[in-house]
Amino acid sequence: MQTPKTRALALFSLLLALGLAAACDQTEQANQLVTEMNAHIEKGQELSAQATARSEEIQSKNFEAEREEVRRLGRESADIYGQARDHFGQAADKAEQASKLKVQDWFREYLTLKAQQMRRTAEAFDLSAQEGQAAAGEGTLAEINQKIEEFEARIEKINQENQATLSRIKQLEEEHRTDLKEVQGAK
């Protein structure tokens, strides 16, 4: 026969089990978002490599003699860097969504930092796209080089800002190496 005390204990146990199940579901959701984040990072990195190749090709050209080719490559570079920016922005969105779920505190911090890192990377790719547009635009070689140098300085600042974030991400990865292995494909 159940007493009020055993009924209350049984109800508490049921609620606890439901609460734990809900928390597990949130971790699974976070893992799925991390998988999606990683897919965007990978695609963004592939696009970045393509755009970098175009940028390097621009540098090998004679600006005056091959101006139209430089413009074409600049437009292509800008377009591809724009696509990379979009993928890193989407990766940041996925990390941010996952960080808002019920997950362990260290994992929430990790996801929040990854979102920050991805947003800054997207910003750097946006500036790289603007560099390509500058190469495709009008102006003398000196004017275009000045614009590109300004973009490069801003990109370098973003990369420096990302260093502290990356250091903390690496620290969390070291501290929770075993836990991260459970997160499918965490990068």
**How many angstroms does the end-to-end distance come to?**
54 Å
Gyration radius over CA: 24 Å
Largest sheet: none
Helix and strand string, N-terminal first? HHHHH
The SS-based structural class is: mainly alpha
| Global shape | elongated
Q: Compute the average pLDDT.
A: 85
Q: Are there runs of 5+ residues with pLDDT below 50, and where?
A: 8-23
Which percent range describes the beta-strand content?
under 5%
Describe this structure in words.
The protein is an all-alpha fold and 187 residues long. 87% of the residues lie in helices and 0% in strands. Residues 8-23 have low confidence and may be disordered.
Features:
mainly alpha, 87% helix, elongated, 187 residues, 0% strand
Q: Quick gist of this model?
A:
By secondary structure, this protein is mostly helical. Helices cover 87% and strands 0% of the residues.
Question: Layout of helices and strands, plus pairs?
Answer:
Layout lengths: L3 H56 L7 H33 L5 H32 L4 H35 L1 H6 L5
Helix pairs in contact: 1-2, 1-3, 2-3, 3-4
